[in-house]
Amino acid sequence: MTRHERDIGEILETLDVIAWDGPVLTNMSGSPVDALEDGKVLYLPRLGFGLSAGETRFLSPAMADAAAKNVSYHPPSDALKHALGSAEDLAAMKAMLRRYHEHALALVRLLLPQYADSLEIGRTSFRPAEIAGRRLSAKRDDTRLHVDAFPSAPTGGKRILRVFTNVNPDGKGRDWRLGERFEEVALAFSGKLPPYSRARARFLNTIGATKAFRTAYDHTMLNIHDRMKADDEYQRAAEQNAFSFPPGSTWIVYTDRVSHAAMAGQHLFEQTFYLPVKAMADPARAPLRILERVMGRALA
Ligand SMILES: O=C(O)CCC(=O)C(=O)O
Ligand SMILES: [Fe+2]
Fold it and tell me: Which residue CA neighbors atom 6 of ligand 1 most closely?
């Protein structure tokens, strides 16, 4: 089977933004929200995240605990996790992640003003470890094409919107693969799933294995995520485009809908947001609704 690519312009929508609070120069025909909801990646090639002279020392895998690999920050509670260093280092790292969070929030408010009142703030992460060559189980291996779905953090259908910025100081890109459209993914992987059990979902929630109740939607997405990653032939032969996001660039993507894999790269910032389906410009484009159409039943 020959592997197909799409024209990269069908996948990336490029916007010229050089400051986190604007202005935005674009010759896009539609709006940024339209492109995103349609499954495109908003690519901002000239929007970087500047580190101060003191912060560049954090560009080292030694700053994150070995098991987690990423430093994580929760803006609503101001809690920093998985960071290593002196009390002073931790305070400075926290301030750096907080600043990234504020920039990412300003950016989504600028580009996606219709979401401003409905966005929920998720975690901010700093990823100082090289991602190529890690040995992980298929399920945890983000070098395999997947749509995001997290075993312990069900969304109930809420969208997962993420902002990424490559801050690599040595000119190294963040090498991604971008896969086929979600409609195709849904057709390929939503058949013959293990049955959903509300009783099991309740149990998982009661014992704290999930942070919220795992709905039929979450069950479906998690199974699709795992099946995509486990399928070697799919990984090899599915339609996909390689793209390297250079240092000093930012991209925004609905990772619950866009099939993606991160192959190589080091030093990245990321901010996660959640958006209720009803806050979308067109809720019919949510994975929840697409899956319901493909599977012919309600999932929420
Ligand atoms: O670290 C990256 O470049 C992206 C990994 C990934 O799949 C994700 O964050 O959803
Ligand atoms: Fe992912």
Answer: 142
The Cα 96–Cα 100 span in angstroms is 6
Taking only the tens place, the pLDDT of each residue in 77-114 is 999 999 999 999 999 999 999 999 999 999 999 999 99
The pLDDT of 62-67, averaged and rounded, is: 94
Cα angle 287, 195, 278; round to 5: 25
Distance between CA atoms of 213 and 219, rounded to whole angstroms?
10
8-295: which CATH architecture?
A: Sandwich (2.60)
Q: β-strand 71-74 against 79-81: which pairing, if any?
A: antiparallel
Torsion on CA atoms 164, 167, 172, 177, rounded to nearest 10: 0
- Ligand 1 atom nearest residue 265's Cα: 3
- Please tell me the residue having the least CA distance from ligand 1 atom 1: 262
Q: Where are the domains of the chain?
A: 8-295
pLDDT band per the 50, 70, 90 thresholds, residue 25: confident
Reply yes or no on whether the pLDDT at 64 is more than 90: yes
